[in-house]
Amino acid sequence: MASIAITAPSSAEEGEKVSVSVKVTNTRTIGYIFKTEIFAVPDAYPDYLIFSTEDIIFGGSSKTYSASFTMPDCNTTVFVWLERFEFNRWNYEGSASKVVSLEVPAPETFHLSVHVPSGGYVTPGSGDYLAYSTVTLRAYPLSGYRF
After folding, report:
1. What number of other Cβ atoms are within 10 A of residue 9's Cβ?
2. For the chain, where do the domains classified as CATH 2.60.40.10 start and end?
3. What is the Cα–Cα distance from 35 to 70, expressed in whole angstroms?
4. Range 2-102: architecture per CATH
5. How far apart are CA 50 and CA 76, in angstroms?
6. pTM metric for this prediction
7. pLDDT in tens, 40-89
8. Which residues does the UniProt record annotate as the domain Bacterial repeat (predicted)?
9. Which of 87, 129, 131, 141 keeps 20 to 30 A from 110, CA to CA?
């Protein structure tokens, strides 16, 4: 059997280019023609082929192939299918997979600083709030004070 090693990030943001590297090692003592296919398999969409080749890999040798895809809005599995050509036909040699999780960026926030001179208080106070959201401030006088 051949060995397959996939190198890909564990997560990526939507729209980010995801680079994938696949190393195929022929663990047999003689060379064979190998067909290597690399797929991106999003959780919510049909899979698609991102790389395919037929290549001779000599016994004990390795070849590394690179491919990339644009990260969709869901987790995506990088799937490698490997076949070996022998006796005038393609034979299943192995497969491997690695999940690239969708990385959801933290929401943007703005910091609101509230300075209240003596004689009252304001709610809510200073803090971080979602960017472009509305924060309603209310001022309250202490006893004996008026606004």
Report:
1. 14
2. 2-102
3. 24
4. Sandwich (2.60)
5. 13
6. 0.73
7. 999 988 889 999 999 999 999 999 999 999 999 999 999 999 999 999 99
8. 113-147
9. 141
